[in-house]
Amino acid sequence: MLHDQTIGDYAAGGRHYPPAPARDQPIRLKPDETIYSEGEHARAIYQVETGAVRIYRLTPSGQRYILSFCGKGEWFGLETGNVRTDFAEAVCETSIRPFRASQNTAAPIDLLHIALTNLAKAQHKQLVITEQSALKRVAAFVFEMAERHPGAREFDMMMSRSDIADYLGLTVETVARCFTKLREKHVLCLNGKLQRIVRLLDRDALIALTV
Amino acid sequence: MLHDQTIGDYAAGGRHYPPAPARDQPIRLKPDETIYSEGEHARAIYQVETGAVRIYRLTPSGQRYILSFCGKGEWFGLETGNVRTDFAEAVCETSIRPFRASQNTAAPIDLLHIALTNLAKAQHKQLVITEQSALKRVAAFVFEMAERHPGAREFDMMMSRSDIADYLGLTVETVARCFTKLREKHVLCLNGKLQRIVRLLDRDALIALTV
DNA sequence: CGGGTGCTTGACTAGCATCAAATGTAGTGG
DNA sequence: CCACTACATTTGATGCTAGTCAAGCACCCG
User: Do A15 and B110 touch (CB under 8 A)?
Assistant: First the structure.
């Protein structure tokens, strides 16, 4: 009976064929609702169906640092051990699907592929962050968000300025200033009461900024 | 015959039981010798036996960014696809052991565990880098190096100042200034003609700096 | 001795954090 | 309908940190 086996267990002893998941019911979440917290026992991994999730840690000094945002189709919650090392929260109205380690039913989840994808994301983020200049980082962020809405004239970032700041290692003020710079350069427009709806005016200029 | 299968192949199609490795002969490397380069076909993963390896990328502007240093026992070279996305070089006299995907012989390699370990490393590094203040970053780096030599009075970092700078997203000058500050604070001594041999004087003070 | 390399130090500057305040929008209650 | 609060974003003024440019030092080797 594998039902109580945790994700961490087969991450640690991954010599075994990954147990097939039992497809659980999707979970609907309100904005800022917690999915799991640091220190908890890791029982499942998740796939985002709609909306977005933020994965973050709190430093000893209480500062929040957002490791990643997960959008539609992306996986999160895979840990090295069987204890959560970070927090997961819904950014907005979100629906996620949990997968637990249980008896073989359907096709097994490709945990290795998920881990490698997340690793590639984390490495790319390292480059973005150290690639100093606040404007570059914000441009890279906007580009990343735009890639999630291919072909759309406009899209909603959904994250607050402080989410973006904690993601990019900047302050809220600096992020706001960068957005106004991007507007002044006619790279994008911001709409919506919270100015989170982006309309890209000059995609090439945006890309040029991230280089 | 799986002999020509690449790492990327079973990373992408990882639903299969990881092929058991053929234990290849160790490779001895001189300082700065290349192990693989961006764009090459990924044929093997490696484990460090002695010495150290730097994994890095070059930005479009030609800047080097070091993603990680791999020390004794650590694995590198596992890619999402079958093409190298980064460079690997020996930092110093180094011996590594390659593992190729070939017919089942010995125990299979736990690729998932390797991927998750590297992911955890990458995430930790994100925190270190965004945790502003050059001194904190350098302190965290020294601590990381010290952890690789538990119980040793002294140890050789082996990396040059510019390696450290490219790893932490700082400049050589800033790194040097931080080391002198650490000396002034009597946290450590530096010995050797290249000032790369560290003697920790106040481990607690070092840890306090990284918080 | 001269040149090369890697580390350190100094002077100056640009860019981001910090502190503070203004703006805009929505919601509440009189 | 308007005053008032609450919240997120934006803007402004100022200081500090790390980057930049430049020079100096220590060591090694031909």
Answer: yes
